[in-house]
Amino acid sequence: MKYIYSIFIILIITSGFKNITEKVTLKIFAEEAIQKKIIGTDPIIVINQFSTKIYSKIDLKHSIFKNLNRKGLFIIPKNSDLIEEFWGEHGKKNGAIVFVEANE
């Protein structure tokens, strides 16, 4: 659990998005990060500490993935050794998007 908090602190410090109060869909958020090469094309999606999905296997039309606050979304960059401890080689290769407070 302490590793999760460490990850969030690192992500807050290294967040590259300018306007964190605007709303965004998961698809747009992911596409921006993929385009900037922060994450791979199939990142892990972490909804809470117990729920993880693979981006290519989720339904992006589901209401939970729309109208999200940027301030509640964080990226764990690809090629992080710490992410490999939690989600294996796939996580290390692609990175992760983590919901902290996705919806208001």
Overall structural class, as computed from helix and strand content, comes to alpha+beta
Write the element-wise H/E pattern from the N-terminal end onward. HEHEEEEHE
**Largest sheet, spatial ordering of strands:** 3-2-6-5
**End-to-end distance, in Å?**
25 Å
Mean pLDDT: 80
List the uncertain runs: none
Our estimate of the beta-strand percent is: 15-25%
Oligomeric state of the chains? single chain
Describe the structure.
The protein contains three helices and six strands; from the N terminus they run αβαββββαβ. A hairpin with a 2-residue loop joins strand 2 and strand 3. The longest helix is centred in the last third of the chain and has 14 residues. The model has no long low-confidence stretch (mean pLDDT 80). 36% of the residues lie in helices and 20% in strands. The chain has 104 residues and is α+β, with helices and mostly antiparallel strands. The strands form two sheets. It has a four-stranded mixed sheet, with helices on one face. The protein has a two-stranded antiparallel ribbon with strand order 1-4.
